[in-house]
Amino acid sequence: MKYRILATIFCLSAFVFSQNITTHTYAIKGLDTLKMDVYTPKNIKTNANLPVILWMHGGGFAGGKRDHPDEVKMMQYFSQNGYIGISISYRLLLKNAETGSGCDCPKAFKLEIFKQAAIDYLDAAKFIVDNSAMLQINPDKIIAGGGSAGAESILNAVYMKTYFVDHLETYKNVKFAGVMSLAGALVNAAYITKSNALPTVLFHGTDDPLVPFASAAHHYCIAEKPGYLQLDGSETISKKLDALGTAYYFNKVIGGKHELCMIPFDQLDTIIQFFEKTVDHSEIIQTKKIITKN
């Protein structure tokens, strides 16, 4: 029994310490110092350049943090499986706001929040591209990932850059290879085109009360409310990708709510395999997994 316990401790220690974690400042904006934690495999070869998942946490643009235990666990997992994991902080522009992100938050302010969050994400992506040699990342294999508010931000950054960004030249060297969105939506799926569509992983519940599953108002606000803003969720995005012949993996939960923004640890292997097939080998895989919530 004693040896079994020691073996368990050893395995856990090997998992925890099998990657190096470094923290970098990627931007300073006003009073916000924006940082990223980089999880690199400990045994990485000197001349290696690995694919990367660039992750943006959720929290309604008011909370959450890059080193939340779930984010840490996910970054550790990716770094154990051939990736460099990068989890970023960004400006939480709704922190302490009386309206929150709901129906009393004016549409124009919501759009500005989406814009600034997308820009923060693109600035983080630019930093890792500009420092790809130091970070040992492959700038051609960046997977954009996020949950909830983070998912909204990365979808807008990847697919609606021309809408939200004033100076596109700044990000001319930034490109993404894939997308992972957990309970996310973007402002207009019409911006997804044949030229910018990427292999995309989507998780969403049909009864999500905050981020629309298909096409509906953010928080399902009625038209008379200041916060009425139409968004296109995962169902609409998947149909667009399907029509374009682009690879996607859609985990649709009938009756699921906003808990689909949580990191699906039991499916990370499947997600990694999807990106290996679609990004590394250019396979066109279109999968819709439908689950009914108990």
UniProtKB/TrEMBL annotation:
This protein's UniProt keywords: Hydrolase, Signal
One family name in Pfam for this protein: BD-FAE
BD-FAE-like domain location: 36-161
SUPFAM superfamilies in the record: alpha/beta-Hydrolases
GO molecular function: hydrolase activity
Stored InterPro entries: AB_hydrolase_fold (IPR029058), BD-FAE-like_dom (IPR049492), GDXG_lipolytic_enzyme (IPR050300)
Signal peptide: 1-18
Protein name: Alpha/beta hydrolase
Taxonomic source organism: Flavivirga jejuensis
Lineage: Bacteria, Pseudomonadati, Bacteroidota, Flavobacteriia, Flavobacteriales
